[in-house]
Design brief:
The complex is a heterodimer of chains A (497) and B (257).
Chain A: H1 2-22, H2 27-51, H3 61-64, H4 71-84, H5 86-97, H6 106-138, H7 141-170, H8 172-183, H9 190-199, H10 203-233, H11 250-253, H12 258-272, H13 274-280, H14 282-297, H15 306-315, H16 321-325, H17 330-335, H18 339-368, H19 375-396, H20 418-436, H21 438-450, H22 453-496
Chain B: E1 11-20, E2 23-33, E3 38-42, H1 49-56, E4 64-69, E5 72-73, H2 78-84, E6 85-88, H3 100-110, H4 115-128, H5 144-156, E7 162-166, H6 174-189, E8 193-198, H7 201-207, E9 210-215, E10 218-224, H8 225-229, H9 234-242
Parallel strand pairs in B: 3-8, 3-9, 6-7, 7-8
Antiparallel strand pairs in B: 1-2, 1-4, 4-5, 9-10
Classes of the chains: A mainly alpha (497), B alpha/beta (257).
Chain lengths: 497, 257
């Protein structure tokens, strides 16, 4: 909280200094910056709390439902508390600071102050409105889980986004005014455009923008009042029985053996548990990120790394599988299922989608970078890494439980103390993976360097035979460890609970 | 294998010991559970009930002592012994992202049963526990009582001879509780053996024909319920054995009027 305040003050300082500098720049630039900046502010206020699930839970309508407060009083109180919070104060001050741009023409500066006040209020009302509107949707387990996954996407795309923006910045001088002109006609940017309109001598447009801005604030307040009223009258209760499913799902498709049952269960979890979705999301993101970076340098051969990277990620994705089970694993122990069946089931489940994915991504990367002569070698590397990764994770997860988010927890929650152990053992395992898959990688790379296609084929054969052997060893060894140390494993898992 | 089956106890524990760091959680416990009995294990919080039951069912390795189920040593024949035992653990999670039907099916398939048998029994069990209406709902969305019932169904699907239930009635509503008791009584009448741990003395006195009182990792009394309670109620006898009862009505200000 203190850190956030300091950070906010610092940002505010930067904004004020920047705006002061703008006052000596051309009026049209001042207009562009305040419109775009203001619109980002309103958008951020309105939609960020929705994703970050409950920044301000103290004024969650569901919690207020028990108190007898008249709706109008409540509305006013919530608005004031929003403005007077640390983010509210900083936003208000930053908004008011936009008038600094026009200090040389005092009349416009006064208009700017008024508009800034309306704009800042729109920010607060906007966020409260969406919170009241979504209280019903966002309180369920499913929504909470969906949100945590949604947050991940912008986070991972941040790198490419910055890269894309930096190339855009070169053309910013020409693009930004156009963006500002468009945004100025939307509810998010209208009010911020008014002083600028006046400065560049367009009073008619200024009036229209002001009307849009004021209308936005009124409309948002009305919607908020309605939504709050509704939320208070019918407080959201946990929505149980939200989803039902007929039949057995994957259990009907896999064979009716212990191995098949474990595979069906694991695959069901891949689809339903957000902690697994976290590793799944890397599959589309890795190609996207690599494409951005290699596209920026103009050399598409960097795309060839996509297959191997995804192969490693997917192969090692069952590394914490037993840890994810948490104490539910005791069912495996109670039923006396063999460690080997447990291991194979998990390997089969992940292979069902990971094997085709790895192959498709490898072929696609070869296709896009137009290096077909490397296809077989690349397949050797990717499949070798994938299968060897499965072997290693089957072995390690048969003996060690790691501190991972518990079922139902936020997938990004880090458990105290456990992160370091997990990272250390991950690092050791990645090193082991690199060594064990070295033969097929070296063969393929020599093949690429000498343009020798047959080395690629040998690499693929080594990947399948050596990798397959390692997988059998990993599963048997890991299964034996699990058979021998099942009770100790459960004790480890109980500590994580 | 002994010849006369009625002489071999369903569960025989001798010298069972478990130490967690400094604390001796279970201290040389001896316990004999006769075949066909409805056995209650009572004790205060932290008495070692759960630890004892975990060791008896092959889920926690004992430091010393032996456990045998129907004459079969559990810790040297883990897989074989587990086929004879059905377990309801207290305080462990379930695979709750599965639907009720999927979870029971999973438990059945894991113990190596045939798919057709599993399907038939899963349907029977869901009906027995009044869960057939929610068989397609994810277990994570179940109420506490429904969760207990689905866990019990998982413990029963492989038709065990011995049922070990840790706190089976906790957070179960009265109607479901009565239904579960009927099912358990039926199981005992057909020759099965049930062990339950509980805090509810009243319930144990009415429900169980044998009882053991355990505190501080030791068995204080064991035998038929009538033997253990003597002329008083089980609750009074329990308080007498375990101690720690406070006399007095609390501070003056707590008394209204």
């Amino acid at each position: 909280m203190v850190l956030g305040t300091v950070y906010g003050m610092f940002m505010l300082f930067l904004v004020v200094v920047g705006l002061l500098f703008l006052s000596s720049a051309p009026d049209s630039l001042g207009r562009t910056v305040s419109v775009v900046g203001g619109a980002i502010l309103v958008l951020g206020w309105t939609f960020l709390p929705l994703l970050s699930s409950g920044i301000d839970e103290t004024v969650d309508p569901a919690r207020l439902a028990t108190f007898p407060i008249p709706i109008t009083t409540l509305l006013l109180a919530l608005a004031v508390s929003g403005v007077l919070g640390v983010p509210g104060i900083i936003t208000t001050l930053a908004a008011l600071a936009t008038s600094l741009v026009w200090w040389q023409t005092p009349l416009i500066a006064i208009v700017a102050l008024l508009c800034a006040a309306i704009g800042a209020l729109t920010c607060v009302v906007g966020s409260r409105m969406l919170a009241a509107l979504t209280v019903r949707i966002s309180s369920g387990r499913r929504a909470r889980e969906a949100k945590t996954v949604l947050v991940l996407i912008p986070l991972l795309l941040l790198g490419p986004a910055i890269l894309a923006l930096s190339t855009l910045f070169r053309e910013l001088r020409t693009v930004l005014p156009i963006i500002a002109d468009v945004v100025a006609w939307t509810p998010f940017g209208a009010i911020w455009a008014v002083p600028g309109d006046l400065a560049i001598g367009r009073p008619g447009t200024a009036v229209l923008h002001a009307l849009i801005g004021i209308g936005t604030l009124i409309a948002a307040t009305v919607v908020w009042r309605w939504a709050l009223d509704r939320a208070l009258e019918r407080p959201a209760t946990s929505t149980s029985f939200s989803r039902t499913q007929r039949g057995l799902g994957w259990f009907a498709i896999f064979s009716g053996t212990p191995t098949g049952a474990v595979a069906a269960r694991a695959l069901t979890y891949w689809a339903r548990d957000p902690r697994y979705a976290q590793s799944l999301i890397s599959v589309p993101l890795v190609p996207a990120i690599v494409f951005f970076y290699s596209g920026a340098s103009g050399d598409l051969s960097g795309l060839l790394f996509v297959g191997p990277i995804v192969a490693v990620l997917l192969g090692m994705s069952i590394y914490t599988d037993v840890s994810y089970d948490n104490t539910a694993f005791s069912l495996h122990l109670q039923s006396g299922v063999s460690g080997r069946a447990d291991r194979w089931g998990r390997v089969i489940a992940v292979s069902v989608f990971a094997l085709p994915t790895t192959i498709i991504l490898t072929v696609a990367s070869v296709w896009v970078s137009d290096s077909w002569e490397r296809l077989v070698g690349m397949l050797g590397i990717s499949l070798g890494l994938f299968i060897t990764g499965l072997a290693l994770s089957s072995l390690v997860s048969g003996r060690f439980a790691f501190a991972v988010p518990a079922p139902g927890d936020n997938p990004f929650k880090s458990r105290p103390g456990g992160g370091f152990t997990l990272m250390l053992s991950m690092f050791a395992s990645w090193t082991a993976l690199a060594l064990l898959a070295l033969p097929e990688m070296v063969l393929a790379i020599i093949g690429f360097a000498t343009f020798n296609q047959s080395l690629g084929w040998i690499s693929l054969a080594v990947a399948l035979v050596l990798g397959g052997t390692l997988l059998i060893i990993g599963v048997r060894w890991g299964g034996k460890l699990l058979d021998d140390n099942g009770p100790e494993m459960l004790v480890q898992l109980q500590r994580q609970k | 294998m002994p010849e006369n089956p009625t002489l071999v106890p369903a569960l025989e524990i001798s010298g069972l010991t478990k130490r967690f760091g400094e604390k001796l959680a279970v201290n040389a416990v001896d316990l004999t559970v006769p075949r066909g009995s409805f056995f209650g294990l009572v004790g205060p919080n932290g008495a070692g009930k759960t630890t004892t039951l975990s060791m008896a069912t092959g889920l926690l390795r004992p430091d010393a002592g032996t456990v045998s189920v129907h004459g079969l040593d559990v810790w040297s024949n883990l897989v074989e012994a587990k086929k004879r035992i059905g377990v309801l653990s207290d305080g462990v999670r379930l695979f709750d992202r599965l639907t009720g039907l999927q979870l029971v099916t999973y438990a059945g398939l894991l113990s190596g049963m045939d798919r057709a048998v599993v399907a038939e029994r899963a349907a029977d069990l869901l009906e027995l526990f009044d869960l057939d209406a929610v068989s397609g709902t994810l277990v994570v969305d179940y109420s506490a009582g429904m969760t207990k019932k689905i866990a019990l169904a998982c413990a029963l699907i492989h038709a065990p001879q011995l049922l070990v239930l840790d706190e089976p009635f906790e957070s179960v509503d009265p109607v479901s509780g009565a239904n579960i008791r009927d099912i358990l009584h039926g199981f005992v009448e057909s020759g099965g053996t049930v062990i339950v741990s509980s805090h509810a003395m009243d319930l144990v006195q009415r429900m169980c024909d044998h009882v053991a009182v355990i505190a501080d990792g030791r068995v204080l009394a064991s035998g038929t319920t009538d033997e253990v309670r003597g002329s008083s109620t089980l609750e009074d006898r329990f308080v007498e054995l375990v101690g720690g009862r406070r006399h007095g009505k609390g501070p003056e200000w707590l008394r209204i009027s």
